[in-house]
Amino acid sequence: MSNYVFAVTVRTSFDDTVQAVTAALQQEGFGVLSRIDVAATLEAKLGIAQRPYLILGACNPHYANQALRADADIGALLPCNVVVREEADGRVRVAFMDPAAVLGLVQHSEVDKLGHEVREKLQRVAKVLSV
């Protein structure tokens, strides 16, 4: 495990996992602002076939507003990215950006507190998925 993400591997299909992640994020107050289909982009731009790989840009408006009020440049670190990807063995892995680690770069006590609160929410999403 790295120091900037935490992850779970699930037993559902890729598409079912994307739906489950989106629903679980919504339960914790997050919306998905962006969907980057990395596999489709690499295929279209470079002709490289790859297993499904999707980046979801998740945002909780309440926390985003607090972070922006604390440091207007923090938008460069937002939103919280969630990666859903299919591994070589067909299992699906969901990796969450660790907001405490990333927002800790700002070195601002209020932002640090927010990062830990958001991490707890994303860890609950991961727990729901791993059941």
Automatic annotation (TrEMBL):
Domain of life of the native organism: Bacteria
PANTHER family linked to this entry: SLR5037 PROTEIN
Protein name per the record: DUF302 domain-containing protein
InterPro entries in UniProt: DUF302, TT1751-like_sf, UCP021774
Pfam families: DUF302 (PF03625)
Ranges of residues in domain DUF302: 36-99
UniProt lineage: Bacteria, Pseudomonadati, Pseudomonadota, Gammaproteobacteria, Lysobacterales
